[in-house]
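Re: Re: ligand-bound prediction request (bumping)

Still looking for help on this. To restate: I need the protein modeled with guanosine-5'-triphosphate bound, output as structure tokens. Inputs repeated here so nobody has to scroll up.
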Amino acid sequence: MNTEGESTGGEAGAQATAGGQRCGLVAIVGKPNVGKSTLLNALVGQKISITSRKAQTTRHRITGVRTEGNTQYVFVDTPGFQTRHSSALNRSLNRAVTGVVGDVDLVLFVVEAGSFTLGDAKVLALLKPDIPALLIANKLDLVHRRGELAPWLRDMQQRHPFAEFMPISAKQPKDIQRLLEVCAKYLPEQPWFYEADELTDKSERFMAGEMIREKLFRFTGDELPYTSTVVVEKFEEEPSPKFKRMVRIAATVVVERDSHKAMVIGDGGEKLKRIGTEARQELEQLFDAKVFLQIFVKVRSGWADDEARVRSFGYE
Ligand SMILES: Nc1nc2c(ncn2[C@@H]2O[C@H](COP(=O)(O)OP(=O)(O)OP(=O)(O)O)[C@@H](O)[C@H]2O)c(=O)[nH]1
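Reply:
Sorry for the wait, this slipped through. Here it is.
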């Protein structure tokens, strides 16, 4: 990470930089499943955060970096704010959200266009009045009568003094470009925090776990409860005469019940094999390396309710 910048004495803040560099933190918040991870990946221009149709896929605060022209955007993704259950896992997720919203230059408050539920209200209540927030009305492509958004928008403006309103589809590149331009206005003039080509501050080991988790959710559909997780047991780079880079990874999928284990493994191990193959192929691309990946499945019932175990699986 580069915190020095090129043209300053390392003193961050309002001081102007020789190249007029801008840099700042942008938090992406919203209830589960509104499209935060899809948005983050599109804003960064690469897959950093995993996405799935299953709510509550994102469990960590993820930083994605995009540098364009003289502006560096540092995005933080947050887990969907959990309101329904109060397990140790959910308490840990909520702490991650509350920690992030007070400490950024701009907040993107993401909702589904035309909708506002109790879940959205609970996240909105966390926003600080002194930090500018944009109302991101996502999934615009699913709204058939755009005119009906006007009364909804008036209602939203009563709820919070949003700096701007952006109706978008996170899957529409033109909308993403427009959003980037709007965000830039809110970032202070200061030296960049990262090198121009850095995409994330997450380790490759972390990315490996996320990629496996994404495939796990994708291939088990809605059958597998969200209380399953992936622990990366081994991540080792080995010298190889044949490949430029070679990485050996061993990971364990932790599930709550024997029946879940059977779901992950599939008939004759077919599902687990597919999860492994797809994860390995994407990791090879991401790391630009040959990857050997082994995945095990273990049953640990009640892990999401046990504070110590939640911590041991890497949640703060
Ligand atoms: N039609 C449509 N679907 C979208 C759009 N943006 C996201 N989605 C879909 O909405 C679902 C949830 O997206 P995610 O990006 O995983 O949502 P999230 O808010 O990060 O969810 P959590 O990780 O549960 O907090 C996925 O199926 C996405 O493909 C959009 O603009 N239009």
